[in-house]
Structures are given as structure tokens and as C-alpha cells.
Amino acid sequence: MDTEEGKGAEILKNEPTVETPLNRQLNQLASAITIASYIVAALIVVGRMAYLFLDGDPSNNDGFVTIAEHTLKSIMLAVSLIVVSVPEGLPMSVTMSLALSMRKMLAQKNLVRKLHACETMGAATVICSDKTGTLTKNKMQVREFDCYYDNYELVAQSLCVNSTAELALREDGEKPRTVGNPTEGAILYYFARHSEPRIDYEYYRDNATIISQKAFTPETKYMSTMAVDEVSGKKYLYVKGAPEIVLAMCEKVGDGRSKEAVLSRLNELQEKGMRTLGFAIAEIMPDESQTPLLYVGTVGIQDPVRDDVRDAIVRNREAGVRVIMVTGDVAITAREIGREAGIVDGDGEEAMMSGAEFAKADDQYLKEKVLPTLKILSRARPEDKLRLVSLLQEMGEVVAVTGDGTNDALALKKAQVGLSMGDGTSRAKEASDITIIDNSFASINNGILWGRSLYMNIKRFILFQMTVNVCACLVVLLGAFLGLDSPLTVTQMLWVNLIMDTFAAIALSTLPPDPSLMKEAPRNPRSHIVDRGMGRRILFGGLFFFLVLAGLWQLLWHTSVDPSQGVTSLLSKENLSLFFSGALNFHHDKAHLSPYELGLFFSTFVLMQFWNIFNVRYFHTGSSFLGDIADMLIHPKRAGEHFSFGFALIAAVILLGQILIVNVAGEFFEVAPLPASDWGWLLLLTSLVLIVPDLYRLVRNLLFP
Known about the structure:
By secondary structure, this protein is α/β, with parallel strands linked by helices.
């Protein structure tokens, strides 16, 4: 390992882990829930104790309940509510969503190396993309070769010896593949198959003894090799690299034409989007003196833009994600490639900047005047790329970076999401978060879609569970301030929290990605995961469920339900009249609800949440449950677009689980079994929780598609 690589490895090792937007948002939410749950728990204890002392009788109807026992029971209830309020299913939801997305993204050529990158990719606002292999096919083809020297064999020798690439024959005997640098390989292939006369690069290498070799670097922009031609016995210095650099090193052009003529020809090639390389030769005399470098030729290499790139760039633009192409090509070539890819289209020079200009400009000027409109950074060095990422992050952008070389490692590590290429170096892959196996920019779009869908699934679970928690807290609070035992026991609340919510987390984490999310702008990384609209929905939803349950509790307290007649006796005309007239209250001779009545209350609570999970499934979508059912009946082949087998399976498990714990393990949950007719009535009545909002969604989608 050379010194520079060693420094890079040390920086990567010591680089602190950047907190992802999701981690920060979840930590904020956890803190808020914890504070709220402790406040509610304190209110429960205070409310129950206040009722005990204000009532003047610290015992219940059965007697012998001491203040200490009452206090202990209040604390146990408060602790159980704290346990319920903390969303235990949330870590599972996040982890499962990340894991499932990781597996699905692999099928779409995104190898996720670090789990958090699945979600962070969905928050990206800027992508700093390499050109070669990502926007282009990385299939270098020599389109033009201008030889400016009459000794063609010497020029050919310089091209073959001053190179590290190889051509390896394929098993099918067809076009050979390049081993090593693709640009050098394209040159070797051109001279082996298309030049006249054809050149066998191995012959020239076999007849040359390399004395020294200086590798190409982004700083020098050229490569040189000193070698002895064993046939003639002469020693030569071969140079190849950026034409403007090599030409400046030369005293004259081999055929006597002016340097201005060469530069004019370079401009023609670069305007066609070609990558150009220049070549020079100098002879080393026996006394080790060197003749002046002679510019002997220019090659124009074209790397076609990928067929799907332009559409992918358009989708990115629709999604509010800006693409900045960072390339080592000269400005003219970079602009042409950017135009073909759809990155620049009618933009002025303000959308472009060279690496040299970028390096000279101060940070404040770049952040205020350049970066908001920058689309192409040409002739960029690795340090330019790293600085670009840092400045964008200082501006509040969530940056994704693509790279395939060792020199890209620092920028890949610095970015919130580093995207290495499938054929990149091991150092680049080590520093990255995701490896794009097929090197395609379209695969990056898939990563953004999965990241946004994953984040939305997490929001859906939070919406579902917090609605449950608000409802449960209000029910328990009502009982505390009325001096009544809560109709939701500790074991029942644990079932709701640890079992049903866990299954809900699994169900919501299996939802497929929603393509409509790519029509929205990236979320603000500084925002809260529970925004105002979502917060209102949680509060209003929880309050609605609470009012329904409070009415049911009041009705059960006021009447005596006959288990043989079931729910129908509860829904008698007389009871409903009293209920809607507001004549019911909790001051009644009944000491407590019977196990059968508790079973009705508990099952109603759970079934309302069961139907609500379908509402949550359609949160922030342009579809509805009834609309999807109708579409599947009309177009059976499109069922896969709407139907999630995992979601349906988990929903069935929740429903069957509730029936089993009431009818089989009822004693443990302090409830009595319910007959089949009661389950039918409860399912029918609670289904209004889904049907009413879904009708609204259906009408809204028809009127405002």
C-alpha cells in the first residue's frame, strides 16, 4: 500500500458515523412518547387516588381494600400503560422494513452493504454521479485516430508499450474483452482490429524492455513509460494523457502543423462527446540526454450514454432529486454527454464549472452562487468531489455519491449514501453503503423508490400504533378519574401492544413500493416523522375510537347483556334511544362488568383497530380498498399491483388470534367466550371504521384522479 492509500484508509477508519435522518426522527419521537406516557401514568395514579380520598371510602364494594393495595393497583395500571405507550413494534417494523427492502433491492441490482442506507437513499436530494459506467455504458470505442507522424510503427509501439491493459479472448472466440483500464483496452482493440496495418500489441511489448513507468494520476493527467526497443536498440520516452497537457509539454507537432490546428481538431472531437487522448514521443540519447517531446497523435474515444439514463434523469427530476455529473472530461465533452443524458438541456454556462475554477473559489461564493444551479463539474479531481459533497451537506442537502475508484473512497464515505459500482475497486466498495451491481443509473432510481416506500411504511406503522395508544390511554384515564376499574386489563393491553402491534408492524413492512412517491419532493431531513397532518389524524382517530368505546362502556354499564341473545340485546331500540339521548351515565348499582361484557368491549376495541390497519395501509396513496377490489375483479391480471399476500396473511392472523384468545384463553384475559353470531355482528359493525373512510377515498380518487 502506498502512502496516499494508507492515509485514505486511516481517514476512512476514523470517520465518524453520520446520524441518519430516520434515526434522528425516531429518537425525537421516542423521547416525546416517553415524556407523554409518564405524564399520563402520573395522571392515572393521581386520578385514582384523588377519587379514593374524595369519595371518603378507601374500600370498594367488597370491602377490605386498603390504601396501600389501591395505590399498588394504580401503580401497576400506570406501569402497564407506559409499556403500552412505548411502541415495541417500531424497532421490529424498522428492522423488518430495512431487511425486506434490502432483499428486494438486491433483486433490482442494488447490493445494500449497510442497512440504514435503504431508508437514507429515499431522503436523497442530490446525486453526485460519475459519468463513465454510470451514465454511460463503459464500452469505450475508438471513433477517430489522427496520426501526426510519418513513423507509424513507432507511434504504434508507443501505444502498446505505454499501457497496462490486456486483451483476453472470449471462450466463444468473438470480440476480445478488456482486462484492466477500459480506455487503454479500447485503444488496443482498435489497433488490433480496425487500423491499417493492424497492430499486434503483444509483439511490441515482447520486444521492449521497460525501464521506468509513471502511472496516470488525476493531478498530472498523463502517463509516461521509458523503454528500450530491443529491435533497434534505441531508448524512448512515451507519454499519453489529456491532449492539452501533453501538447503543452511538446515543442512541436510531428508533421509540422501548428498547435492551434491540433487544438481546433480536439475541439471538434470533444463537441461530439468524445473523450480524447494525446500521444508524444522523445528519444533518449546514449548520453541520457532527451530530444524534445514530439506530439504524434490524438485518439477520440466514445462511450455511449446508456439507453435508460435519460428517462431515469427525468424521473429523478420529477422526484425533486438533482443530479450533478462529476467527471474528469473536459468541459466540451462533459456538456455534450450531459446533454445526451438529459442533465443539461438549454442551460447556460452557469450550470457548469471546471475543477480548476471550483478549487479557486471560496466556500461562501460556491454555496451562494454556484451550487444551487450546478449540474456538471468537469475536469474534477477526487478532492474536488469530496469538497463538493461537504459543501452540499453544509447547505442542508442529503447527498448520494457514485464512484468506482480508490480515489473516490473519501467522497463515498463522506456522503450520506455512498454508491459504489459493481466493477469498482474493493476500496470504493468498502467505503460505500450500496453497490450498484449493474452500474446503471436506473438502478439508483429503484433505490430512491424503495427508500421512500420504506419510510412511508414506517410512518404508517407509527400512525397505526399511536392511534391505538391514544385510544387506550383515554379509556384508562376515564376509568381512573371516575373511580372505575378499566375495562381493558393489563393482560389485554399487553396483547394489543406486544402481539397485535407486532403483527401489524410485520404486515405494514411487507407492503410493496408505491411508484407515486416518485412524483413527490424529497422530505425535509430536519422535519419530524409525525407531521401536523399525521398528528391530527392520530389525535382525531384516537379520540373517535375513544368516544365509541366510552359509549359502549356506558351502555354495558347501564344494561345487563344476555349472553344467550348476544349483541342484539345490547342494540335494542330502548338501549339505543337512551344512548343517543345522553341519558346514560356511570352511576349505577352494577359493581363491575361481567366477563362476557368485558369480552364484548375488548373485542370491539381490537376489531376497530383491525379494520383501521386497512385505513393505514392506504394512508398517503391515491387508491382505496374498495377501488382495488373492483379493479381486481375487472382486471384479474393486475391483482398483483394491489394485493400483498404478506399483508393479507398477517391481517388474518390478527383476526384469528383475537378470536382464539377470547374463545380459548378467555379466562387468562378475564373475558368469557363469544358465540359466532356475536363475532359476526362485531365484524359487521366495526367494519364501518374501514367502509366510511374508504368511500370518501374512493369518491375523492374518482373526482380528483
